């Protein structure tokens, strides 16, 4: 009976939490499309999420590209298929590694910062103060972050794709002795519009998920500094899991035949 | 202030619980136009919850709150925002926006109404800062650069900037030294009188309550157990009120101290 009760409590709790998240997401999206728009907040978030994430995303991309080239080369050498390195690097980066790794890095950097900022605003009553000053907190705090996340993640991934492929080029040309022109030709020939677009769509979805989780956990934080710390951890963990989960779903939608 | 007029705020049977813990168990209170009422009570007796229910920050479980005759329990959306526009609130911890400088904090409510442009809002904000004894030199500072007393003054300026006709003060002197507390009390009395506003404050600081109140009400175990003029409080024949105003550990009010 005890185990059944625990299972029932867990199930009800899970359904309740999911319902609250879906309602929060719906309300956030509704505020994204209904005026007024807080343009200054949107621009601030675009800079915060996009510009300030460039170094970490760039470094992740270049090393990923370099490792991918090296690993592909050593692996494919067993089957005398070294010529496929350029194609593997280009397709892996654009379809998969660019959006997923950029998403995970931004989730760590931005999801945590958002949850901490909004969580602190919650526990110091700044969110209540917004309401008393005739300002809808979701419109003022959540909508600009969602809009910025959806816009800026694809741009970041575009940059990550270029840097990642460049990383693969560096290792292939200067370490593995590939011909530069042949490598670039193979890269261009391997890429299709679908590869790039699917990666950018994934990035937009990940941008939404990262900002949604940051806002949701921050908005509902309670219990002072400990509560804010918990919100920050939950934001990063849940965003990371959702990124991997939606990555599979989107890959299935785009490429499963 | 006049008690002949209908109450500005009328509260009847207000109830609020959190899980199994009942915080407000049927609060009845009238606040008349131009009057300053202070609700006193120990920590955790639901004073802040009462204010938050009136402002719609918390949803009451039952009972009625009327502002200018209009029922506000369950009111949401645009009408709730319109009613909140006639109110100002000074939060216990000031609740200034960290990311905005002082001037933008004070002008925030004015700009949210979209009735005036930024230039006019900034001018009004500077005038309001002067009313609370702060000059233009602090306008560009961020809240974290100010002392607790100055933050309280900025928060008071923010609450007053929109010229509200009802102002709520949540523990306005908590955390301040006695001199700064008295300065804030004086500012509250002066500014609400100048505005002709109705004020509802909550505090457990009796010096503050005596200074800013026309009437005092005491909240205990979720109900108002006594309400009357400031001058009457020392003659009240209620052991709970007497224990509280004299700050005695012995008496009918027992605080649970968990070690």
TrEMBL record, chain A:
Record localization: Cell inner membrane; Membrane
InterPro entries documented for this protein: ABC_MlaE_roteobac, Permease_MalE
UniProt keyword Transmembrane, yes or no: yes
Transmembrane segments: 51-70, 146-171, 200-219, 231-250
Main location (coarse class): membrane
GO-annotated cellular components: ATP-binding cassette (ABC) transporter complex
Pfam families listed in its UniProt record: MlaE (PF02405)
Signal peptide range in chain numbering: none
Cell inner membrane as UniProt keyword: yes
Gene Ontology MF terms in the entry: phospholipid transporter activity
Membrane topology type: Multi-pass membrane protein
Alphabetized UniProt keyword annotations: Cell inner membrane, Cell membrane, Membrane, Transmembrane, Transmembrane helix, Transport
Function noted in UniProt: Could be part of an ABC transporter complex.
UniProt record similarity statement: Belongs to the MlaE permease family.
Entries under PANTHER family matching the protein: ABC TRANSPORTER PERMEASE PROTEIN-RELATED (PTHR30188), PROTEIN TRIGALACTOSYLDIACYLGLYCEROL 1, CHLOROPLASTIC (PTHR30188:SF4)
Designated name of the protein: ABC transporter permease
TrEMBL record, chain B:
Domain ABC transporter, first and last residues per copy: 9-246
InterPro entries, per the entry: AAA+_ATPase, ABC_transporter-like_ATP-bd, ABC_transporter-like_CS, P-loop_NTPase
Keywords recorded for this protein, A-Z: ATP-binding, Nucleotide-binding, Transport
Pfam families documented for this protein: ABC_tran (PF00005)
UniProt-recorded Gene Ontology molecular function terms: ATP binding; ATP hydrolysis activity
Protein name: ATP-binding cassette domain-containing protein
The species this protein was found in: Defluviicoccus vanus
